[in-house]
Design goal:
alpha/beta, Rossmann fold, 17% strand, 22 helices, four-stranded mixed beta sheet, 649 residues, five-stranded parallel beta sheet, 38% helix, 4 domains
Length: 649
């Protein structure tokens, strides 16, 4: 497809103009262009003709001025030309017997490629070949292809192994080769066959040749071998059958099943071990980028903000701070903060049902590629299994919608929000773990949370909206049409200046990276703290329990304002169950009460320090009388109280 002009004798007396000779001298004297590792260079003449020149036998610039024909190399077999498209995909051609090679030949190759769907960004020559020099060649390249800064960005992306720009994901180059020219075999075909056929090939060579053929399209994602196609799609090859079914589509496969030859299963594992490795695939950006993540997306740049503001306009927030908090939620989902540093989010409303809590959570998840939906009754072990599946790779939202509970409390959920890793059983794989970049979103009508869960959440409150029949349809269309602009605005958000807070909480990383970029960060922080305290029902519950203990003791004729009283664990659990209207076991009630004591939530009750009277708690008056004894007759008084009541009837 790429053929050069026919080789013709070069009229040496008219080949080089005086300007060409001076350009040759400048190239010879330029250390950046004339590097010792290169033997030959491409040089373009003023009339557009491109020649290959050889400086290895030239000792001084005067030799070029006296006889420029000395720079012409002896003819050889051919040379590689390397093309690169906008995604950094490379394609090499060998053009034989070209001396000279007209620039128009190269452009005709490019035109053929563009008709086949390639978008050529620039022409280049491999480092082992002749790099281009000369004014006219650079001008043509810059005019016909990309701007210099675009080429620099592509080269930078390739150097950094940027996943999308350095890979060849759609395998377009394979369409230009015959399948018979692409052979994958575990036999060594470089050695003449013996009576028993070809000998076994080196396993590593087989794997490297296969990876080289697909030029970065095969890689390891987590602990699975995967292939990237059409720049944005991946699928895992979890079995040898899947791997070879893929290879059969693009190549000839001649696989010897002999015992001494590389087996298919070992070949799959060897590919996984030596292929480019990534932790997971992301189809949306993080800022900053996360190490080891394969980004199959653009990172749009620009100054904006109106797209995010337009999205927020669809919802009716209770306060301006809630609008900023929703903006912070969106920024959190695109942030490259360390794992386990993202708070959970509660979407609630004083107005009750029908204000758009579920829609807000669902549309946020939709914007970022969907969600893993969970329920309060679902076992955390099962949830972790779901979060560790290949399908969950790249998903950023865990959504618990429409929770109905008088008080939401779950040690498993609390740990899942803040742990650095999601660790659990992966089906048929055993123990697995994944870095915790998930953001939990909960929707409920009234935020009644345990203390630990309340401290791990940020609440966004919605007000009752104005009704519109096509509101949800317009919202979905807005997200679909302006997704790239919204992502651009969120990336631009991280260019805002930081305004340090006076004090930081357990979410210091999130506050520094997200909250400090808002001009009213201090006010927003106060609202967050106030809502966390309001959602925490444990202080209220502890007050109810202490008051019930006091009333129960006074009913048994104790003076709670000046006497110390021992309360056995069994009785304490009964009183807690009565106070909270929950059925609590003795162990469960004792642990909860002990936690409240250690946190300072209750003051009048302390854990018994001695086992002389058994396990239990001690009621302390507000002011302890010196040398006052601890009364231990609670069970006797309760027995007499029951007897007196029975006799009364």
């Amino acid at each position: 497809m790429c053929s050069s002009a026919a080789s013709t004798p070069i009229p040496t007396n008219t080949l080089f103009s005086p300007a060409d000779v001076e350009n040759l001298v400048q190239a010879f004297e330029d250390p950046e262009r004339c590097r010792p590792e290169f033997d030959r260079f491409l040089f373009d003449l003023e009339d557009g003709e491109v020649l290959e020149v050889d400086f290895t036998e030239i000792e001084s610039a005067d030799e070029i001025r006296n006889d420029p024909r000395k720079v012409l190399p002896a003819p050889d077999g051919g040379e590689d030309i390397e093309l690169m498209n906008w995604c950094g995909q490379k394609m090499a051609f060998v053009i034989y017997n070209w001396r000279p090679l007209y620039l128009q030949s190269v452009l005709s190759c490019v035109e053929d490629l563009e008709r086949d769907g390639w978008e050529i960004a620039w022409l280049g020559w491999p480092e082992t070949s002749a790099p281009p020099i000369g004014r006219r060649f650079r001008e043509i390249q810059d005019e016909h292809f990309a701007k210099p800064e675009v080429k620099a960005e592509i080269r930078k992306a390739t150097d950094e192994r940027d996943s999308r720009k350095a890979m060849c994901g759609d395998f377009s180059f394979l369409d230009r080769m015959s399948r018979k020219d692409r052979l994958i075999t575990n036999e060594d075909r470089t050695i003449p066959p013996m009576d028993g056929g070809y000998p076994p090939a080196d396993p590593v060579d087989v794997a490297k040749n296969t990876l080289g053929l697909f030029r970065g399209g095969i890689m390891a994602i987590g602990d699975e071998l995967a292939v990237v196609q059409r720049k944005t799609e991946t699928f895992a090859m979890t079995s040898p059958e899947q791997l070879f079914a893929f290879l059969y589509q693009w190549t000839q496969v001649d696989w010897n099943a002999g015992r001494t030859y590389l087996q298919k299963k070992e070949f799959q594992e060897l590919l996984r071990q030596i292929a480019p490795a990534y932790h997971q695939v992301d189809r949306l950006p993080h800022w900053p980028k996360l190490d080891g993540h394969l980004y199959l997306c653009d990172f749009p740049q620009g100054v904006g903000g109106e797209a995010v503001e337009g999205l927020l306009d669809f919802f009716c927030f209770a306060t301006e701070a809630d609008r900023h908090l929703c903006h912070a939620l969106l920024a959190t989902l695109i942030s490259g903060m360390p794992p386990g540093t993202r708070p959970a989010w509660v979407i609630s409303s004083p107005a009750g049902r029908g204000v758009g809590k579920t829609t807000l959570a669902a549309k946020v998840a939709e914007l970022f590629g969907g969600s893993i939906d969970v329920s309060l009754n679902e076992d955390m072990g099962v949830i972790k299994q779901r979060l560790l599946t290949p399908e969950a790779s790249g998903v950023r939202v865990v959504l618990a919608d429409n929770l109905k509970s008088f008080k939401l409390s779950s040690a498993d959920w609390e740990g899942a929000i803040t742990s650095r890793y999601v660790s659990g059983k992966r089906m048929y794989k055993g123990e697995r773990r994944r870095e915790n970049y998930f953001t939990w979103i909960l929707t409920l009508n009234a935020s009644s949370l345990s203390k630990d869960l309340a401290q791990r959440t940020i609440t966004i409150e919605l007000d009752e909206p104005k009704r519109s029949g096509d509101w949800e349809e317009r919202l979905s269309r807005y997200i679909q049409d302006r997704r790239d602009e919204i992502i651009r605005d969120l990336l631009d958000f991280f260019k805002r200046p930081l305004r340090p807070l006076k004090r930081y909480s357990r979410w210091a990383t999130w506050q520094r990276e997200i909250l400090c970029r808002f001009p009213d960060a201090e006010d927003i922080q106060r609202i967050i703290s106030s809502r966390q305290a309001s959602a925490d029902v444990e202080d209220e519950e502890a007050g109810v329990v202490v008051e019930h203990f006091r009333e129960s003791l006074e009913a048994l004729h104790y003076y709670t304002d000046r006497e110390q009283i021992f309360i056995p664990s069994r009785i304490a659990s009964e009183w807690m169950s009565d106070a909270l209207r929950e059925k609590l076991s003795t162990i469960g009630a004792s642990r909860r009460l002990a936690q409240w004591i250690s946190e300072g939530t209750v003051e009048r009750i302390q854990k018994n320090r001695t086992n002389a009277w058994g396990k239990g708690f001690v009621w302390f008056p507000s002011e302890i009388v010196p040398d006052s004894p601890i009364l231990t007759d609670l069970e006797e008084r309760m027995a007499r109280y029951r007897t007196d009541r029975t006799d009364a009837f």
